[in-house]
C-alpha cells in the first residue's frame, strides 16, 4: 500500500510536467465557442501525438507510446491541473478506434488510426435508437445486403458529436428473423455519405452536444463491416467495454472549491461552512466522490500488476453522477433566492455549479442509466439471477 | 503507486481467515451475546494471542513482531468479518498504540505483557450521554490519584489497564494510564445494544495513574483507530452482504428467486457500492496512517464515515432481504445489526466524524493554499 509515485512514475510525471510547461501557450481551455474549442483541441492533440503523449497506453505500432495505464492517468492529472478539458476525442479514441484496431483490415487501420490519434478525424458512436436505449438489443435500424454493399436505413439518437464527426460506428439489424441479440451487424460509416442526415437535439440543459442521425438508404461497402454479419452484438459490447474503463472521472467542482464557497456563503449568523447539516452532507458527498477516485487507483493497481480490473471498476458513474446532482442542488439552494441567478457574470464560480445542476440528469442516463448499472452490478458482480426474459430465443419480428 | 495489499499480506489474510473460520463461528459470538456473565470470549482471545496478533505491531525489543499497521489492518478486516467478541481494538489500537507513541520507558515495559496477552486495555473517555467532550470532563487526578466515573467503557469489565481522560491538577484534561487491578476501582456491567462486546461503568476512587499525553495524542489515537475499525466494519459489511445475496438466490416468492427482482437487486447493488467506497477510503486511510502523512486527519475521518455507512446499510438491508426469518432471534442477521451499531458509536458518532472530516479538510486545504 503506497500512494506515492514509484521512481519510474515520478520520472514520467516530471517528463509530463516539462512537456506541458514547454507548451503552456498551446494548452486548450473551456473558453470560446464549440468551433473555437475544437480547433484548439485538434492542434493540442496533434502536438501530444507528435511527442508521444496521445494514447499513451497504446502499442507503438498504432501510434501510441507503449506506456502504462498509470502513466496515462498521471498525464491526464497534470493536464487537468492546468485546466485542459477532456473533450472531443474520448469516444473515438476510447471506444471506436480500439474496435477498429480489433476488427478492421490492415489497410483500414493504416488509414484510420493515425489521423484519429492526431485529432484530424473525429469519430462518433451510433448505437442508441428511439426504441433501443437501455435495451440496446432492440435496435431497429435495418442493414440490407445488396451485392458488395449494405443499405442502411433507420434512426439513431443521442449521438454525441455527430455534427463534427468524420466517421461513425453503427449497429443495425441485418436479419430480423433471428432472435434479438443475433441478426445484428456492426459497420463503420463516413458521416458525409449520401443519405446521412444529422439533426441536433436541444437538451434540457440548453446545450446541443447530442444529435439524431437519420440513415436514408445509406450505401456502405461490405468492407466497412466489422466482424461477421450477425455478430454485431459482440462487436458493440467490445466497444462499450472500453467505455466502462473510462467511466467515473472527476466531475464538478473540487472539495477545496466547495469548502471555500461554503465559507463565502452566509447562513444564519455565520456561514454555510459552519452549518452542521451542510458539513454532514458535504462529508457524505466527499467520501463518495473521493471514494470513486480512490477506487480507480485500485483498478489501476490491478492493471499494473497485469490483472484484469475487478468489478469495483463499474461503480464510478453510478456514484459520481448522482453525487454531482445533489451537491450542485445543495450549493445552489444555499444561495437563497440568489441561487436562481444563472448568469456566468453574476453567479458563483461563473455559474459552473448551475451548469452541473442542469447537466447532471443527462449524466445519470448516458452510458448506462443508474438502474441499468445497478442491474449489472447485481447480476455480473453479485451473481443474482436475471429477471424473466420473455423475448429470449424468439425471432426479433415476433417481439415487442 | 501501489494501491492494494502485497502478496505477503494476502498470505497473512488467508491464514487469519482460516484460523478465524475455525475458531470464531457465529455460534461463538452468539454464546457471548446470550451469556450475561461474559463480556468477551477468553478462549478466542488466548487463541489470537497465541497467533501473535497482539504482538504484531509491537517493537521487537519489547517482544513484538515489528510489523506494520497495514499488516494489522488485514487482521482487523478478518476480525470484523467474524464479529470476533474480543478486546482487540481496545488493547491493540488504543493501549498499545498509546504506549508506543507516547509512553515513557517505564510505561513501555507494559508492551511485553500486551504481546503475551496478560494485559488487556480499554479507553475511558465518556462520562454520559452525548459525544465525548474535551471540556466537560468531571473525572480528575489529584496528587497522582484518579477519582470519578467513566461510562460506558468498552471492554471495561475484562481490561487490566485503562487510558482515562481526566483533568489534571491545573484543570487541563489529559490522557492518563491507570492499572485497573486496584482496590479503588469498581466495575459495573451495563446492558448494551451489542452484548457480544461488553461495556461497563468504571468508578475510580483514588486510583494511582500516570500521565501519558494530551489532546494531540488522543486525536492521533482516535484517527488511527478510525482507520483500523473501518477495516473491521468493512469485513462485517462484506459478510452481511454475502449472506443477503446467498439468501436472495435461494428464496423464492411469486414463482421466482427474490434476487431476480430489481427491488432486491438495486438494494444489494447499493450495498456493494457502499462497501467498495468504504474499502477505497480505508485503503487511503491506512496508507496515511502508515506513512505518517499530514493527510491522516481527513483520510481517517473519510474512512470512518464511509465504513460506518457501509456496515450499517449492509446489516440493515440484510435483515430486510431476509424478511421475517431475518427478524428472529435465532437468525444471525441481528448479530451484524448490533455490531454495526456498536462500531458506529465506539469512538464517537458518525455525526462527530462527519464534522471532523469537514474541519480536517478545511484545515488541510487552508494550509496548502
The CATH superfamily of the largest domain in chain A is Butyryl-CoA Dehydrogenase, subunit A, domain 3
Report the count of strand segments of chain A: 10
Strand order of the largest sheet of chain A: 1-4-5-8
Taken from the alpha-carbon principal axes, the silhouette of chain A is globular
Q: Report the average pLDDT across residues of chain B.
A: 96
Largest sheet of chain A: 4 strands, mixed
Helical fraction of chain B: 40-55%
Q: Could you name the CATH homologous superfamily of the largest domain in chain B?
A: Butyryl-CoA Dehydrogenase, subunit A, domain 3
Output mean pLDDT of chain A. 93
Distance between the termini of chain B: 25 Å
Model regions low in confidence, pLDDT < 50 over at least 5 residues of chain A: none
**Percentage of residues in strands of chain B:** 15-25%
Overall geometry of chain B: globular
Number of helices of chain B: 12
| Most extensive chain-chain interface | A-B, 54 and 53 residues
Radius of gyration of chain A: 23 Å
* Helix-strand category of chain A: alpha+beta
Number of domains of chain B: 3
CATH class of the largest domain in chain B: Mainly Alpha
Cofactor (chain B): FAD
Keywords (chain B): FAD, Flavoprotein, Oxidoreductase
Domain Acyl-CoA dehydrogenase/oxidase C-terminal (chain B): 221-351
GO molecular function, one term (chain B): acyl-CoA dehydrogenase activity
Amino acid at each position: 500500500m503506497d500512494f506515492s509515485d514509484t521512481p519510474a512514475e515520478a520520472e514520467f510525471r516530471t517528463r509530463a510536467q516539462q512537456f506541458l510547461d514547454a507548451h503552456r501557450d498551446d494548452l486548450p481551455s473551456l473558453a470560446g465557442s464549440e468551433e473555437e474549442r475544437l480547433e484548439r483541441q485538434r492542434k493540442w492533440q496533434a502536438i501530444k501525438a507528435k511527442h508521444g503523449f496521445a494514447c499513451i497506453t497504446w502499442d507503438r505500432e498504432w501510434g501510441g507510446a507503449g506506456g502504462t495505464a498509470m502513466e496515462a492517468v498521471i498525464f491526464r492529472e497534470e493536464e487537468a491541473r492546468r485546466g485542459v478539458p477532456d473533450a472531443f476525442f474520448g469516444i473515438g479514441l476510447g471506444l471506436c478506434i480500439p474496435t477498429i484496431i480489433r476488427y478492421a483490415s490492415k489497410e483500414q487501420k493504416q488509414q484510420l488510426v493515425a489521423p484519429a490519434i492526431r485529432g484530424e478525424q473525429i469519430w462518433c458512436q451510433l448505437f442508441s435508437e428511439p426504441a433501443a436505449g437501455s435495451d440496446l438489443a432492440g435496435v431497429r435500424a435495418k442493414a440490407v445486403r445488396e451485392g458488395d454493399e449494405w443499405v442502411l436505413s433507420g434512426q439513431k439518437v443521442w449521438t454525441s458529436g455527430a455534427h463534427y464527426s468524420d466517421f461513425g460506428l453503427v449497429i443495425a439489424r441485418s436479419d430480423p428473423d433471428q432472435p434479438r441479440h443475433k441478426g445484428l451487424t456492426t459497420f463503420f460509416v463516413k458521416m458525409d455519405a449520401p443519405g446521412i442526415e444529422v439533426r441536433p437535439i436541444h437538451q434540457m440543459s440548453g446545450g446541443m452536444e447530442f444529435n439524431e442521425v437519420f440513415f436514408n438508404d445509406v450505401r456502405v461497402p461490405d468492407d466497412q463491416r466489422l466482424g461477421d454479419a450477425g455478430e454485431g452484438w459482440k462487436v458493440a459490447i467490445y466497444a462499450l467495454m472500453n467505455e466502462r474503463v473510462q467511466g467515473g472521472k472527476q466531475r464538478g467542482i473540487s472539495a477545496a472549491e466547495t469548502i471555500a464557497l461554503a465559507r463565502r456563503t452566509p447562513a444564519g449568523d455565520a456561514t454555510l461552512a459552519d452549518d452542521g447539516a451542510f458539513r454532514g452532507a458535504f462529508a457524505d458527498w466527499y467520501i463518495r466522490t473521493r471514494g470513486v477516485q480512490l477506487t480507480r487507483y485500485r483498478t489501476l493497481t490491478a492493471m499494473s500488476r497485469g490483472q484484469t480490473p475487478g468489478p469495483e471498476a463499474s461503480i464510478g458513474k453510478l456514484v459520481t453522477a448522482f453525487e454531482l446532482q445533489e451537491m450542485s442542488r445543495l450549493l445552489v439552494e444555499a444561495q437563497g433566492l440568489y441561487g436562481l441567478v444563472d448568469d456566468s457574470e453574476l453567479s458563483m464560480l461563473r455559474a459552473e455549479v448551475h451548469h452541473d445542476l442542469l447537466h447532471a440528469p443527462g449524466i445519470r442516463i448516458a452510458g448506462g442509466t443508474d438502474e441499468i448499472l445497478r442491474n449489472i452490478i447485481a447480476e455480473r458482480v453479485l451473481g443474482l439471477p436475471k429477471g424473466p426474459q420473455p423475448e429470449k430465443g424468439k425471432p426479433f419480428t415476433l417481439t415487442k | 503507486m501501489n494501491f492494494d495489499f502485497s502478496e505477503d499480506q494476502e498470505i497473512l489474510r488467508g491464514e487469519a481467515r482460516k484460523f478465524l473460520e475455525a475458531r470464531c463461528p457465529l455460534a461463538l459470538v452468539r454464546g457471548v451475546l446470550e451469556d450475561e456473565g461474559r463480556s468477551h470470549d477468553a478462549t478466542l482471545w488466548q487463541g489470537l494471542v497465541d497467533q501473535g496478533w497482539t504482538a504484531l505491531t509491537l517493537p521487537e525489543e519489547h517482544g513484538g513482531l515489528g510489523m506494520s499497521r497495514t499488516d494489522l489492518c488485514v487482521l482487523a478486516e478478518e476480525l470484523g468479518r467474524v464479529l470476533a467478541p474480543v478486546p482487540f481494538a481496545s488493547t491493540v489500537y488504543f493501549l498499545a498504540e498509546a504506549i508506543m507513541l507516547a509512553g515513557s520507558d517505564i510505561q513501555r515495559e507494559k508492551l511485553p505483557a500486551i504481546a503475551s496477552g496478560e494485559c488487556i486495555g480499554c479507553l475511558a473517555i465518556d462520562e454520559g450521554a452525548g459525544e465525548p467532550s474535551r471540556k466537560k470532563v468531571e473525572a480528575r487526578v489529584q496528587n497522582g490519584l484518579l477519582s470519578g466515573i467513566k461510562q460506558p467503557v468498552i471492554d471495561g469489565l475484562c481490561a487490566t489497564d485503562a487510558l482515562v481522560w481526566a483533568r489534571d491538577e491545573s484543570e487541563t484534561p489529559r490522557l492518563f494510564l491507570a492499572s485497573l487491578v486496584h482496590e479503588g476501582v469498581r466495575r459495573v456491567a451495563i446492558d448494551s445494544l451489542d452484548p457480544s462486546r461488553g461495556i461497563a461503568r468504571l468508578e475510580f476512587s483514588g486510583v494511582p495513574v500516570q500521565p501519558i499525553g494530551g489532546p494531540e495524542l488522543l486525536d492521533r489515537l482516535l484517527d488511527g483507530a478510525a482507520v483500523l475499525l473501518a477495516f473491521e466494519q468493512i469485513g462485517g459489511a462484506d459478510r452481511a452482504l454475502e449472506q443477503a445475496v446467498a439468501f436472495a438466490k435461494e428464496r423464492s416468492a411469486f414463482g421466482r428467486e427474490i434476487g431476480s427482482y430489481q427491488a432486491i437487486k438495486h438494494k444489494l447493488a447499493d450495498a456493494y457500492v457502499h462497501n467498495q467506497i468504504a474499502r477505497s477510503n480505508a485503503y487511503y486511510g491506512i496508507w496515511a496512517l502508515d506513512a505518517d502523512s499530514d493527510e491522516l486527519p481527513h483520510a481517517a475521518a473519510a474512512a470512518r464515515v464511509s465504513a460506518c455507512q457501509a456496515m450499517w446499510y449492509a446489516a440493515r438491508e440484510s435483515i430486510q432481504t431476509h424478511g421475517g426469518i431475518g427478524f428472529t432471534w435465532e437468525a444471525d442477521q441481528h448479530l451484524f445489526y448490533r455490531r454495526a451499531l456498536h462500531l458506529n458509536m465506539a469512538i464517537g458518532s458518525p455525526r462527530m466524524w462527519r464534522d471532523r472530516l469537514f474541519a480536517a479538510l478545511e484545515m488541510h486545504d487552508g494550509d496548502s493554499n
